[in-house]
Amino acid sequence: MKDIETLDSKVVYQNKWLTLREDKILRASGKEGIYGVVEKPDFAIIIPIDKDHVYLVEQYRYTIGKRQIEFPQGAWEDNPNASPLTLAAGELREETGLRAGKMEYVGFQYLAYGFCNQGYHIFLASELSQGKQELDSEEEDLKVLKMPIEEFKNKIIAGEIQDASSCNAFGLATLKGFI
Predict the structure, then answer these.
(1) pTM over 0.85
(2) pLDDT digits over 56-97, tens only?
(3) What is the rounded distance in angstroms from the CA atom of residue 20 to the CA atom of residue 162?
(4) I need a labelling partner for 51 at 20 to 30 A (CA). Which of 16, 25, 115, 158 fits?
(5) Which residues contact 37 (CB under 8 A, 6 or more apart)?
(6) What does the pLDDT look like over 114-130, one tens digit per residue?
(7) The domain spanning residue 128 has which CATH number?
């Protein structure tokens, strides 16, 4: 027997961005329970680096009611089967207008696997050239920032940058020697 067996599953809510599922489960101990699961497509997060600077985006995040600074990132609901590299290059171009001459794969992490199946592919983009942004309607307030890496680190330490996936992506890229 698996650690947890799914006895029944029903979709509670669904839109183009996510599906919320409630599963009736059976634990190895024999006790039943329920599990709420958010299904979302994997996304890409991109660390655009130019010498000792990184490019970031700032946008209003409705769920917390304030603007946040983070690395460009996103998923394509209209093309969930796009390769992670294609997605990363596309999101970088859409959000910042930047094109990368070089994209290096850093790794894969899960966002919050306690309740969500979504993960993200981390890329380091370099050899950058500037083009035109291709923002969609949800990104109309997005601003692009170029920031020294040391300032970015200090903003993480000070709690000014709170996007977990951006902090994690930067940390993994640093630990692996990309930065």
Answers:
(1) yes
(2) 999 999 999 999 999 999 998 888 789 999 999 999 999 999
(3) 25
(4) 158
(5) 20, 21, 22, 23, 115, 116, 117
(6) 999 999 999 999 999 99
(7) 3.90.79.10
